[in-house]
Amino acid sequence: MMTKNADKKREQMMMFSMDDMVPQNHMLRLIDKAINWNFIYDLVEEKYCPDNGRPSMDPVMLIKIPFIQYLYGIKSMRQTMKEIEVNVAYRWFLGLDMLDPIPHFSTFGKNYTRRFKDTDLFEQIFSKILEDCMKYNLVNTGQIFVDATHVKACANSKKMRKRVAHEQALWYEEELNKEIEKDRLAHGKKALKKKDDNQPPASGGNGNNKDSKEEKIPEDVKTQKCSTSDPESGWFRKGEHKHVFAYAVETACDKRGWILGYTVHPGNEHDSRTFKALYDKISKLNPQMVVADAGYKTPAIAHQLLEDGIQPLFPYTRPKTKEGFFGKYEFAYDEYYDCYICPGAHILTYSTTNRSGYKEYKSCGEHCAECQYLSKCTESKDHIKLITRHVWEEYMEVAEDIRHTIGNRQIYQLRKETIERIFGTAKEQHGFRYTQYVGKARMEMKAGLTFACMNLKKLAKMASDFEKPDKVHTLFPDEIPIKMWPLPVRDLLFLGKASEKRLTEAGIHTIGDMAHSSEEEIQRLLGSKAGHQLYQYACGIDNSPVKAQPEEAKGFSVETTFNDDIVSVEQVLPILLEQCDIVATRMRRKEKKCTSISVNFRTLDFRNKSHQMTIPNATDTTDEIYKNAQ
User: Are residues 253 and 144 in contact, defined by beta-carbon separation less than 8 angstroms?
Assistant: First the structure.
């Protein structure tokens, strides 16, 4: 049957509640339940006059508006206001009814300029949301993943000018110079003369565009492209076709995908040179390992992390030697005599230490001229082979040892599930491919709000069954019949599916039914010991002592499940070695040793088997544990 006049209810008058119009599982409802927004009042209190002027717009509503924009990836503030006007859930989230007027789209921009510009308000909002995530023990800062992504700036790639490319200051320069001077003095060399520091600021823009427009560029000076629309952005080149002005957003997250910190830099600055700003933030979280890509694989970063007791995990990088020539790894370094030995058994002796922190080792040209490997070694006219070694090279060697540690390869592969997934989600769902704002400060605001939205969305999904922070449940004796007895028996602590089935078959469906039964009946159904304990719980009785601290673990264990069946001992042994190494590492970290070793496994017909043995001497070494586990 065809239905007609489907629009006859357009002019119908109804009475309803705004709360009833928003589904219980709507994302904004979950977000509103997961966080208490009143903290914003404390952050912005000093920006408002307490006793003068007309009443302002609610600051919480003012901050929630861009949250809606970034949460749903709406392109502009103008479009966001249009969506709020017709979306009941957006109105409910902002505290507006169906007839309240919507703020003008320029309201947030004007408030930003007059109140929030040159403040860290949005970083404080990001930090507060991250703090709430930590309250639920959802964040694990043991392993932190670091990377950077580029966001296209609001700048026409054809509107540019040239400016002098000044050398960017190194964050580790002072410490490196001390190390260079120390190394040169140890080799009997004079200290290097100080460089001329009378240089203009480093490239990347400082927002002061008026003077830079009139900058005169001398001849034979290295230049770089500068946007006339957004001089604080940087010219970013990736591949043959992607040439744009952009910002680099350096980000850190944990292995569960929680964003822990971020910094914003011009797109033409290298990740390794901007790392220190982000590291200063994440180092406060006491990480045990920092996982980063090849862009961060430098002696300075390895030195900084290892000196602070943090393990750096870098990927393998291919040798950059010209094809057909010996790689650096084929030249053996003799630490005792501080020299290199080439494949032809000739010695490369120390020559000098340059300003970049590299020690130079040179061969004897007369010996090399007669060497049979000369064509594979060097093309220099004087037949002298030059090998360089950084003054912090030993830290890079330690980093390589960490990379080869069993299990760390799997940790590095988590990057695609953590930091790379965060960038993909931000760009696909939250409008992070480009920015409509001009200037580094507004880009920092966009990054802070975007990452705050992502953490908040994740928190809302995971904490949807929780109450708001600092809220606790009470269960006083007089509340037991009201709060606990109506619940199904499966909600009782330690009551499994098999026990639930027996109780249900006996007509006991709720905890109240169980409490009103006799203890003898429950013991008959569930056994003497379990029946007594569960009956006590159903009556609201628990005599176990309350412990302020959890008990110390009595053992260390690790287990794994395979996608395919293991059918031979040869397949098992490498996996067993890896598991032994994980257990031994955990014991050493806790300064413990073991005297008993147990191996459990499940056969192809799903039968569990275990073997246990006691060793005469306590140990925490991988080799000893593996030897006995075999």
Answer: yes
Alpha carbon 627 to its chain's center = 37
pLDDT digits 0-9 by tens, 17-38? 888 888 888 889 888 887 888 8
The letter for the amino acid at 551 is: E
C-alpha 227 chain-centroid distance = 31
CA distance 5 to 609: 71
User: CA angle 123-129-133, nearest 5°?
Assistant: 135
Tens of pLDDT, residues 302-357: 999 999 999 999 999 988 888 889 988 889 999 899 999 999 888 999 999 999 99
Distance between CA atoms of residues 469 and 34, nearest Å: 8
CA atoms of 199 and 166, how far apart (whole Å): 7
What is residue 82's three-state secondary structure?
helix
Residue in the block written with tokens 């930090």: 127
Which of 371, 318, 381 shows the shortest CA–CA distance to 341?
371
String of DSSP letters for 552-593: PPS--------SS---SHHHHHHHHHHHHHHHHHHHHHTT--
Q: What's the alpha-carbon Rg for the chain, to the nearest Å?
A: 33
One-letter amino acid at 156 equals N
DSSP, collapsed to helix, strand or coil, labels residue 451 as helix
Burial call 509-536: b when 16+ CB within 10 Å, e when fewer = ebbbbbbebeeeebbebbeeebbebbbe
Closest CA to 131 of 39, 27, 26, 262: 39
Strand partners, 599: 611
* pTM of the predicted structure, to 2 decimals: 0.70
What is residue 466's predicted lDDT score, i.e. its pLDDT? 45
